[in-house]
Amino acid sequence: MYIPSFIDENSKESFRNIVVVCIIATFGLGITAAGFAFILCWNLYETMGKLAQVYAESLKEKCRLMTWNVEAIVDDLSIFKNLAFRLNETDEAVNAYVLLLYGALISGFFNTVSVMVTNDENYNTPPIIVYIFWIFLTATTVLLVMSYYGSNISNKGDEIKRQMVEYSDKFVRFSPPLSAMQTFHFLFEIIMKANMVVTGGGIFVINFGLILSIASVMVTYGVLILQLDQK
């Protein structure tokens, strides 16, 4: 550990202890903050996915029972607008936390790859190996959980659109009145144009496809580090 030259010999041990305590405290606070952000996003994403699923099932049931009238369509329109608004509100509330959380995850993967491909014996000690394994396992678990619930919201949004297409196909066959047709068309346009996704800072969409992107970056980074280390 680097100790500044102005620290006298008698104070070096105290200085070293203070630095170690600060490092541990900072790491602990970081883990705690990331954990709270993860739990918050997990619960919110799970709730929004369930709400989207309930709406998709209600459309499917109405399509099956053929319960179509202006009042029902207006109710569907109001419910979907509220659902889309809540999803957008949720994403705006937590997408900054998600961005920082993914930054921490990627940093953990970079650390893991760096230690795995390096030939430095200082990193081959049992404590370092256990630490890196724990970081990798935690980051992988969080990434899979976030990707699952993010993809679930996208899938439920696509399911709503599929149900709406089926709904519209049956709706027009019964020659509904003009008022009902206009209201239904408005609902159809809103649902088909809705983008039901959650993001990280509004920069990238949270889904399973993101895992492939991160994995490709990690493989490329590992190959580069391995080649540079051999030189």
UniProtKB/TrEMBL annotation:
GO molecular function, one term: signaling receptor activity
Domain of life of the organism encoding this protein: Eukaryota
Cellular component aspect of the GO annotation: membrane
Transmembrane regions: 18-45, 96-116, 128-150, 171-191, 203-226
Topology in membrane: Multi-pass membrane protein
Keywords, ordered alphabetically: Membrane, Receptor, Transmembrane, Transmembrane helix
GO biological process: detection of stimulus; sensory perception of chemical stimulus
Protein's UniProt keywords contain Membrane: yes
Keyword Membrane among record annotations: yes
Cellular localisation: Membrane
Protein name (database record): Gustatory receptor
